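User: Structure please.
Assistant: Input sequence and predicted structure:
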Amino acid sequence: MPDIAKNPLRRGRNKRMFIINQHNRGVSDAILVTMTPTASFTAGINLTFASGTLTIDWKDGSATENFVSGIELTHTYTLAGTYIAEITGDFTNITKFIADNNRITFIFGLKTGLLTDFRINNNLYVGALDMSSAPTSGLFWVDNNSGMTSIMHSSTGNAIITNYQYDGNDITGVLDLSNQPIGGVFYGYDNSNNTGITFASSGNSIVTGFRLYNNNLTALDLSNVPTGTLFYVYGNNNLITITHASSGNSVINDYRAQNTGLNSTLTLTNQPIGNVFWVHDTSALLNILFSSTGNSALALCYCDDNLLQNIDFSNFPTSTPIIRLTGNSLTATEHDNQLINLDNQGWINGTLSITTGNTARTSASDTAYNNLIANGWTII
């Protein structure tokens, strides 16, 4: 039999086979975490588990170590390279998995109990994150993994994720949350190839912090996702429609949907609005339909550079707003009607900018204009 120690080619072949075998191990055997540390790099993984034993082999020739529940286990790699660390033990007892800043490129065979906290931020992840055997709830953060292209959630066993963030990755195509209810905070931005999201048809709770910007969404269907408090959807230039839930919404006090492709009508008839409302630089948007009830006082309304014909504020309570309607290509009649409608509101001390890009008003709005000025309005 040839001496492997004296046969470099044979040694290399076995080394490659060892790595391939690790990737092909069954999910029940191990969780494999591939990392590419630099020299003298310290990695750390924090697991929380109710009982049992969990062990890691860092695969650099050092001794295996046992995790202590809830305490980060760290290890310093002396040499730069690619290492496939192997976690073994009682996987189904894991409830938290945190491995931030570890230069992780892949996780294979992830298998846990119901996770209430999952974080792999600021790594080097490449490809799909497979959570199909790791049901999730609570907190889910996968930020700043520029090579992460998809997230596959478990088809069963999930509970509401109240803080979901997938920022600064490369999520491509549609993010499938059809089996993963959400609520609370939902952030997903700077995923330039993310074209859509499929939300669960039931089980969602109200999302009070909703931010989706600088993606490539084409439609946003929130029919089954009630929203309130804060709603930011901007920098999605191909986003044509936003569909809000028909019930369960609370007042959104900061609504921003600028720099999108919204066209025709933005329907907010079931979504009350208050305080800040920014919908601008949506060059094909013609109409905004506000809710007839539930709106709160309006402070800022920036609706510049659309194609709006009129904005009806009649269902808002008494306000002292700053309203900007520049660059909407208003006809003279539409310009007149906007002043007349604002005069009918009876609001005082507001500011209206209705200049560049609109046709000048006519004498038909003289009375309304003078009334507004007498009531402390500044009209530009």
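DSSP finds three helices and 28 strands in the chain.
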